[in-house]
Amino acid sequence: MREPPYPTVLKPYGRALVELAREREEIVCLSGDLTRQCEVDLFQEQLPERFIHTGMAEQNMVSVAGALARRGFLPFVHSFGVFTTRRPYDQIVNSIASARLPVRLVGFMPGLSSPGGPSHQAIDDIALMRAVPHMTVVDVADAVETRAALRALVDVPGPVYLRLKRGEIPVIFDEPHSFALERAQVLSEGGDVALIACGMMLPAALNAAAALRGAGISVGVVNVPVLKPIDAATLLRVATQVRCLVSAENHLVTGGLGSAVAEVLATAGIGRPLRRVGVQDTFAEGAKSAPHLFRKYGLSTADIVAAAWSALGRDGPPPTVGEVVADAGEYAPV
After folding, report:
1. Is 39 a catalytic residue?
2. Is the Cβ–Cβ distance between 34 and 7 less than 8 Å?
3. Which stretches in the chain have pLDDT values below 70?
């Protein structure tokens, strides 16, 4: 695993999808008028006979995908996360999930990574998709995991929601990276606190762990790229080894990773303090940059450190987090 700042690559999903589609002739690509923004301009250029532009009509796009799946195709549906989930929710349930059809819903620009305000910020997409029966929900952290997840989910016998960062994608993991839909990834072990993170919050969790270790705290970090079905066994094993846990997600604290972790602990009767870092019960405004929104709404490295410090009952101010400076072509945790 690399150290920050992380190198970045462009369009790892788009390239991986084209590569996979060359191997699997049943794959078709649908775009909802955000072709370049969702990296599938590469698919349109190289496999145009299997590319369908449905226009800005997400409900229709999802219904078309369901029909294609019934005819033996493997449709991949693309838009921003808020438009992939919230707008066509009824069609997802009735045209895809109720029949357990193998449609892959791909949502870019998750959570507060969009500076476009409430209309473009998918802060509830995980909660919505976790509530759909038969749905698999995946939120990956970097370019390596994106490619690995795509190959892992292609044969899932039912619908999948894949959540992806847009733009320059960090490379956190080394190749080859072990990825499985059934298992969370314990990146480090610790006896005081476990930081449980997914997606874009993994870099901040890793950075927070380093800051806490510098203050003498024994910290474990768990990456949870698959939120449904969640790996309860790994979470319970980790929970029994620490005094408290902190979840970190680029999503509302309601219905997402933090809620899933709380459900696992409560069901098993494991009593551990849990602090949930994420978007609280609010909408965010538009802004010029996503890092500004992450800091304003409590999704920064410093917020994870403060949550862990509080959960452990430590006196005094939490450790100071040093800024990681990123050059062009690099990604630094917020």
Report:
1. no
2. no
3. none
